[in-house]
């Protein structure tokens, strides 16, 4: 026991990965209030929106305005998702500390998601990564479906490594490995992290779990066993699963905080203030979010 | 990796621990159908009801009739909760393979729950345990609030051991250690299991987690790290939390099966048939149960 780290870095992806899968559109003013509440709670990194074309993600069509209006708290890194050169330009105008690029480890999922083969995607991301680095920005490479693909099933760790190698070669600062459909169990996490951590320093590896089958907290424990100290998570488990309306999405930051603080791991986040930010967006969305610890708090109010 | 056992024994407690906390009363005929579906799915042990006075648990006032009407599948152990001598007599009449007695490791919780001090509870349980053993029945001792108490906070493992020692001395065959309010994180599981497993063989120890804050699956992983191979769980996470209406209760058997089968651990349970039994009771209760893997399945229907 006692294998967990002293400190864990959490990137809050609720305003982006969370809201992009929600049907209800949140007003720009509410998003700005909410993101400010998140930074006030002590969150050190927030993915505040996506500069993907509004046609694809209408819920985030105000990315530019949100970026302009949020109060930039010193010490907090504000990042955004950028799909291509055009998206990066808009993001730079709106103000970002970091840019996140994305692609899949699975050929079929990549094709369905960004309408290009993996090999066709590489040159697009290479250009974005190089431009973002030239502009002095931190760049994270999201790799999705690293465990299972809804079309292809189990993904070989070698397929994941093939994509990671190229993204690092293009200049990304770190990699966020996504269990996009929330199917992984701890043994799969180990089977992927073993070869990954032989190849890359652990500081470059972020784990991004979805809680679709309730396995995310156990997968985070296992990742920490392997030395991982960086995780993406979403306020209240916001986000749902695009493949099954009503099912859970990103692992809830609230549950992650309950786990980590209970283990004595520091995050720098004030749980009570964070809870308030979660209740704020839950109220705006008008539905109970999937986080069990948030549900417990809500039920007691 | 690969620390988990080949085989795990699951006791399905939904018909008892689950239903006793649900507001909606399920008809006897529906309970019987449901319990028969559970045994058909391959569950080897089912706690089918409680012989606590109906005044305290009106949802289970038909315990006797349920016990008489369920189809006894060979190889399946049917047990029931018995609070005292009177309850045991009724349970024996209705037919049980095993009797479960219960008390708390926390003085205040024991007092609130069974209106007696811990020392006053011992002679009552001693009599029941001895009578049940004389009748040739398996006896399990539930010890609740082994990690935290809603009134006293953190419970010292020595307090848990004090109660376990007496129950074993009275003749219980095994102990089920309950995270009654679902607050424990994996470090607490380790801190309790270390002294417990120095004192008792692991075969005698069953872990009984509630998923109130979403930690149960991680706690089960940690318990398996310590060698535990027996768990209580409830169909769909049925049961809720008596301290916070709307919050999650027992860990969902569906999620436990997803974890274990994903790890390659055998349970003897057919996941698909089990899912059908979960959908059956979810439909009868008319509400979505807390299990995330069940929610995913339900959302796809």
TrEMBL record, chains A, B:
Residues 8-275 form the Pyruvate carboxyltransferase domain. GO terms for biological process: ketone body biosynthetic process; L-leucine catabolic process. The keyword Cell membrane does not apply. Keywords: Lyase, Metal-binding. GO terms for molecular function: hydroxymethylglutaryl-CoA lyase activity; metal ion binding. InterPro entries: Aldolase_TIM (IPR013785), HMGL (IPR043594), PYR_CT (IPR000891). Pfam families: HMGL-like. Belongs to the HMG-CoA lyase family. This is Hydroxymethylglutaryl-CoA lyase. It comes from Virgibacillus halodenitrificans. The lineage of its organism: Bacteria, Bacillati, Bacillota, Bacilli, Bacillales.
């Amino acid at each position: 026991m006692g294998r967990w780290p002293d400190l864990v870095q959490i990137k809050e992806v609720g305003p982006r990965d969370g809201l992009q899968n929600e049907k209800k559109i949140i007003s720009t003013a509410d998003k700005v209030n909410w993101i400010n509440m998140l930074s006030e709670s002590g969150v050190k990194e927030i993915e505040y929106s996506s500069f993907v074309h509004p046609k694809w993600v209408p819920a985030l069509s105000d990315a530019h305005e949100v970026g302009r209006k949020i109060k930039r708290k010193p010490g907090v890194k504000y990042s955004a998702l950028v799909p291509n050169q055009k998206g990066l330009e808009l993001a730079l105008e709106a103000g970002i500390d970091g840019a996140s690029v994305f692609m899949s480890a699975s050929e079929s999922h990549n094709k369905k998601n960004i309408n290009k083969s993996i090999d066709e995607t590489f040159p697009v991301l290479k250009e974005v990564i190089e431009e973002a680095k030239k502009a002095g920005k931190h760049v994270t490479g999201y790799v999705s479906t690293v465990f299972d693909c809804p079309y292809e099933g189990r993904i070989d760790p070698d397929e994941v490594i093939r994509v990671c190698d190229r993204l690092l070669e293009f200049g990304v600062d770190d990699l966020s490995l996504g269990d996009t459909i929330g199917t992984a169990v701890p043994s799969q996490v180990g089977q992927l992290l073993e070869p990954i951590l032989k190849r890359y320093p652990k500081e470059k590896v972020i784990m991004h779990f979805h809680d679709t089958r309730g396995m995310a907290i156990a997968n985070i424990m296992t990742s920490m066993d392997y030395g991982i100290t960086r995780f993406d998570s979403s306020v209240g488990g916001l986000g749902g699963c695009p493949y099954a309306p009503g099912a859970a999405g990103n692992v809830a930051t609230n549950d992650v905080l309950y786990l980590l603080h209970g283990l004595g791991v520091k995050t720098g986040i004030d749980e009570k203030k964070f809870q308030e930010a979660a209740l704020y967006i839950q109220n705006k969305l008008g539905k109970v979010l999937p986080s069990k610890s948030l549900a417990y708090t809500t039920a007691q109010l």
